[in-house]
């Protein structure tokens, strides 16, 4: 990747994603993650939890019982979409995932999760289960308060990190005078860049 324009765009990607980790209101803090089961693609909004351009990954959290975990266990491929309407920059990442469950990485991350957020992993129902009537899927005893460390152990059993290892980034900047689009592909230590028609 020798061209100065590619280097500037590459740095822009790193800056935007790094800013999103620090700022909860950043448009890239939430993104669309796509998976595929045997019949249909599935799309949902998730929260960016970690990112490294050098190591080519980003993380989000999920519940072990979620359908997306079942889908990713069958087909590890993912696609992710980030978009800022203010900057008019779209990023698409493609690659494969690793799912971390009850290991040193999840334990360290779980210890940093806000207690109120831990309740989301303590639900009595599997995510996406059909219900006879409305239920917030938070245990009654912690619906209006934070769980104790002991209570939240139930949530840790369901807590997983989805690590998205990307091998391709598609960058698109929209502009009235002409859009800019390029693609970065990763092969071992090499980063290759090429222009793509918008």
Report on this model:
The radius of gyration is 19 Å and the shape is elongated. Strands 1, 2, 3, 4, 5, 6, 7, 8 and 9 form a nine-stranded antiparallel β-sheet that branches. The mean pLDDT is 95. It contains five helices and nine strands, in the order H-E-E-E-E-H-E-E-H-H-H-E-E-E. It has one domain: Roll (Pnp Oxidase, Chain A). The protein is of the alpha+beta class. Helices cover 24% and strands 37% of the residues. Strand 8 and strand 9 (190-195) form a beta hairpin.
Keywords for this entry:
9 strands, nine-stranded antiparallel beta sheet, alpha+beta, 24% helix, 37% strand, 198 residues, 5 helices, Pnp Oxidase, Chain A
Task: Summarize it.
The chain is of the alpha+beta class and 198 residues long. It has a single domain, classed as Electron Transport, Fmn-binding Protein, Chain A (Pnp Oxidase, Chain A). Helix content is 24%, strand content 37%.
How are the secondary structure elements laid out?
Elements: H1 4-22, E1 30-36, E2 41-47, E3 50-52, E4 57-63, H2 67-74, E5 77-84, E6 89-101, H3 104-110, H4 115-118, H5 149-158, E7 159-173, E8 180-187, E9 190-195
Antiparallel strand pairs: 1-2, 1-5, 3-4, 4-7, 5-6, 6-7, 7-8, 8-9
């Amino acid at each position: 990747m020798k061209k100065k324009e590619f280097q500037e765009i590459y740095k822009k990607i790193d800056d935007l994603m790094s800013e999103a980790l620090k700022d909860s209101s950043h448009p890239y803090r939430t993104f669309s993650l796509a998976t595929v089961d045997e019949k249909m693609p599935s799309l949902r909004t998730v929260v960016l939890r970690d990112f490294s351009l050098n190591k080519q990954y980003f993380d989000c959290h999920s519940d072990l019982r979620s359908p997306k975990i079942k889908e990713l266990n069958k087909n590890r491929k993912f696609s992710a979409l980030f978009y800022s309407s203010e900057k008019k920059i779209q990023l698409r990442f493609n690659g494969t995932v690793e799912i971390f469950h009850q290991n040193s990485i999840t334990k360290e991350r779980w210890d940093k999760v806000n207690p109120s957020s831990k309740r989301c992993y303590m639900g009595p129902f599997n995510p996406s289960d059909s219900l006879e009537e409305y239920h917030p899927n938070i245990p009654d005893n912690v619906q209006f308060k934070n769980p104790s460390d002991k209570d939240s152990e139930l949530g840790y059993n369901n807590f997983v990190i989805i690590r998205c290892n990307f091998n391709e980034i598609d960058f698109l900047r929209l502009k009235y005078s002409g859009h800019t689009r390029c693609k970065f592909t990763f092969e071992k230590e090499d980063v290759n860049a090429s222009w793509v028609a918008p």
